[in-house]
Amino acid sequence: MKEEKFKVINFIRELIIYLDKYLENFPKKDIEIKNRIKNISYDILELAYKANTSNENRIEYINDIISKIKVMDFLLNLCYDKQIINLKRYTKFGEKLDDVLKYSIGWQKSIINKNKENGA
To answer: Does the N terminus or the C terminus of the chain have fewer Cβ atoms within 10 A?
Structure first.
């Protein structure tokens, strides 16, 4: 389970690096979308660390991560629709988000299964 947690954080880190690299040329009129995407990415990282260190609220933090990933996906789709990012970048962002989402859900399931085994 520890390895999975670190994988989630590593995938989030890769997402943040990719976002920083490829969200630099935003039109001024859409800068708020860029700022929301960046802020959400750091929120996701913070929630992952909270989930990693908390014993009581892990599932809630992971649920928050999943929710924020879905919001970020919506915002990136909006950027694609507005032609702020091209299909190649949109696809790459989607792959990075899918990695974070897949491992977050796996982390969540492992916690739920562990709780069931322990009778909680």
So the answer is: C
Alpha-carbon distance of 65 to 52, in angstroms, equals 12
Residue 119 lies in a domain: no
DSSP assignment letter at 83:
T
Alpha carbons 109 and 106: distance in angstroms, whole number:
5
Long-range contacts of 57-62 (CB under 8 A, 24+ apart): 58/111, 59/108, 59/111, 59/112, 62/104, 62/107, 62/108, 62/111
Q: Which residue has the tokens 């750091």?
A: 42
Which one-letter amino acid corresponds to residue 5?
K
CATH of the domain at 102: 1.20.1440.60
pLDDT of 2 above 70: no
Quick one: tokens of 24? Answer: 């630099």
Domain count along the chain: 1
| pLDDT tens by residue, 43-97 | 999 999 999 888 888 999 999 999 999 999 999 999 999 999 999 999 999 999 9
